Amino acid sequence: MKTTLLIMAAGIGSRFGGGIKQLAPVGPNGEIIMDYSIHDAIKAGFNKIVFIIRKDIEEDFKEVIGERIEALCAKLGVEVDYAFQSLDKIPEGVEVPEGRTKPWGTGQAVLVAKDLINEPFAVINADDYYGKEAFVKIHNFLTTEIKPNGFCMAGFVLKNTLSDNGGVTRGVCKMDENSYLTDVVETHDIVKTADGAEAKGEKIDVESLVSMNMWGLAPEYMDMLRTGFVDFFRTVAANPLKAEYLLPIHIGQLLREDKVTVKVLSTQDKWFGVTYQEDKEFVIESFKKLIADGVYSVDLFSDL
């Protein structure tokens, strides 16, 4: 059965401290975070990878990771393709607002891959490390439980996703007794405290599950996403330069309308990413420890 890993890397031009954060080497042989996600996905059984990028970074992207991954995947029988997010990929009859320079967010990013995906797929961010367990659980769901309107997401324990270097935004999950998502509460500026975490002075349960934008979706979702994108443009006039069509917000809307279900698959793995320049050293040390503990080999792809 074909399953696709869709990697959202179109935001790769955002810079921190003079470097492109998604392409910062963090492994012993110059591996970037995306390498580890691709390794874990292939190991879990995914057999197609689609990168969502922008045309203006295509050359750099292929030089740093694309061509290397294409060569590896060719040996493993894993398909690789590219989709391109751009400001002007919008519904017919709609115009780009004057002065708008940035694309339309994660919902549009996934939608640009519509013509490349006819199978169950997982969506991840390029610059987040999710751990092995989440890929295994999502792949199992995609091959055994997925329905045209029955999806899943990886739920990470909040305490495993916080940064030592500043506040983070997390989607805190609300679920029913069967672990089905009822709502995602976008919570800004969550910071570590001596006895847990808080956001704007309010305590937050560090054992809460949060969304890190790792979803398991059916190909039928693409049609829902396209319909939602048309609806989204009815609201753009209120904030033409900054309005974003975001995946979690769209899925949350479908949940409230009882059009889909989302099973939350909890994972104990520690998430990490490079939100702040200071996070990079922590990420490098984290991968060193994972290698020392035998989670990965120094030659990352040697076990595939």
Tags for this model:
single chain, 304 residues, alpha/beta, eleven-stranded mixed β-sheet, two-stranded antiparallel sheet, 28% helix
Task: Map the helices and strands.
Elements: E1 4-8, E2 15-16, E3 19-20, H1 33-44, E4 48-53, H2 58-76, E5 79-84, H3 106-111, E6 121-125, E7 128-129, H4 132-144, E8 150-157, E9 168-175, E10 181-193, E11 196-199, E12 202-204, E13 209-217, H5 221-232, H6 247-256, E14 261-267, E15 272-273, H7 279-292
Parallel strand pairs: 1-4, 1-6, 4-5, 8-14
Antiparallel strand pairs: 2-3, 6-13, 7-15, 8-13, 9-10, 9-13, 10-11, 11-12
Question: What does it look like?
Answer:
The chain is built from seven helices and 15 strands. The protein has helices spanning 33-44, 58-76, 106-111, 132-144, 221-232, 247-256, 279-292, and strands at 4-8, 15-16, 19-20, 48-53, 79-84, 121-125, 128-129, 150-157, 168-175, 181-193, 196-199, 202-204, 209-217, 261-267, 272-273. Strands 1, 4, 5, 6, 8, 9, 10, 11, 12, 13 and 14 form an eleven-stranded mixed β-sheet that branches. A two-stranded antiparallel sheet has the order 2-3. Strands 7-15 form a two-stranded antiparallel ribbon.
Briefly summarize what is shown.
This protein is α/β, with parallel strands linked by helices.
